Description:
In chain A, 69% of the residues lie in helices and 0% in strands. Chain A is built from 9 helices and no strands. In chain A, helix 7 runs antiparallel to helix 8. The longest helix of chain A has 22 residues. The N and C termini of chain A lie far apart (53 Å). Chain B is an alpha+beta fold. Chain B has 2 domains: 68 residues; 183 residues, no CATH class. Helices cover 37% and strands 23% of the residues of chain B. Chain B has 7 helices and 10 strands. In chain B, the strands form 2 sheets. A 7-stranded antiparallel beta sheet of chain B has the order 1-2-3-10-9-5-4, with helices on one face. Chain B has a 3-stranded antiparallel beta sheet with strand order 6-8-7, with no helix packed on it. At the A-B interface, helix 2, helix 3, helix 4, helix 6 and helix 7 of A face helix 1, helix 2, helix 3 and strand 1 of B.
Amino acid sequence: MDETEAVVRLKEGNIAALRTLIERHQVEAVQAAVLITRDRALAEDIVQSAFVRSYERIHQFDASRPFRPWFLRIVINDALKAVAKQQRHVSLDDPGNPSCPQLIEWLEASSNGPEDDVQRRELRDAIRAALNALSPRQRAAVVLRYYLNLSERETAREMGCAPGTVKWHLHVARDRLRSLLSPYAP
Amino acid sequence: MKEQDNRHWALLEIADREAPSHTIDLWPRIEARTASGASGRTRERDLRVRRGRLALGVTAALLCAVLLARVPGVRAFADDVIQRMGIAFLDTERHEDAAVQTAMETIRVTPPPSLSIAEIREQVSFPLLVPTWLPDDLTHTHRSIAEYDSEQWEGSGQKITIAYYRTAQHDFEGGVLFLSANDGPISAPPLLAASREQPAVVNGQPGIYVHGGWRDDGRGDPNTRHGILQWDDQADDAYLTWTQDGVTYLLAAHNLGLDLEDLVRIATSMTAG
Lengths: 186, 273
């Protein structure tokens, strides 16, 4: 069953069609929500509720349009709201935050990522820790642009702001990541 | 692109480590939730309401037809038409088209649903002014409320954004005007070049106007830069921000050819009405 057919069947009340949509989008949605909320359980709750709401409101959805952007928009907005409520701040003093000499170069470099597994793991862990220190909206901008691969214009549409503002969010996020990671530079 | 690939790669790895794809299976819980009837009941309630409205409409139409048929003038007119034409034609083809259109009609909602001014005012604690004058072609509006980190920014933690588009597709390049309001400093201030700030006055309150925007392709002003961004005075972006009654407003116009005079005119037209 393809996505359009699943949406049409869901509109007819066929609950099995929801499973098709869940299986197709759950990984991307949960992972995007995790990157924003930094909380796996919360992310799953958000996505689960988003699927149920989509099911309840599917009659409002135009089946000729793609389901993914409509659904991910619900997930991103809900994740931002959830984080705003939680006001969680994770310290960068996380003992699991190792040093990595290539971080600064990597963030702005045009070369490929590190080949070595150890370096990759160190880099990933350091970026993950730095990601925690961004504001939720900066994280959302990074996730929309670099995880979901939306264009700056699409990102602006999702965030409800002008394209110039997205450039600003991304630039500040990159700047902040760079300054947060600078202690690990050589 | 490679740089973006790298970041995508890193985020993918981080996401897959924190939420491994093979461990994500929401279906059983969602199935249990939908089977428990909570959402099913919502859908059934929606359907019942819609069926009820349809039945009410059909009954009202039939009642009107019966009552009109009993009015002598109407009946005489109908008899007169039938007598003169000899036969009454029904445009069945057209009728079928209309029926199909009704059946296929979809409700086009741009998600998330745009809120009404009244809904916004119910949800936020501060007064909201809205423009009573806008350029004629900004006819497509979308209103929303966003949460922001009220620990980092002053205010209630809510920001209202109203977008006025030229096109029904809400196309940025077609031109858009954003109005944002929150009861503190702007929650997500656009990074503007301080050297381009111009003083402005809105309803006697001091404001700031900026024209132009940042670009990241190296074709802006090399002397006005922030990291890789360079300022472009020719960019069709205009910003006006001011504070009134404790609420900070920002008007941001993109691809509309608006200048200071236009934005001030929009700003001064804003009322609580």
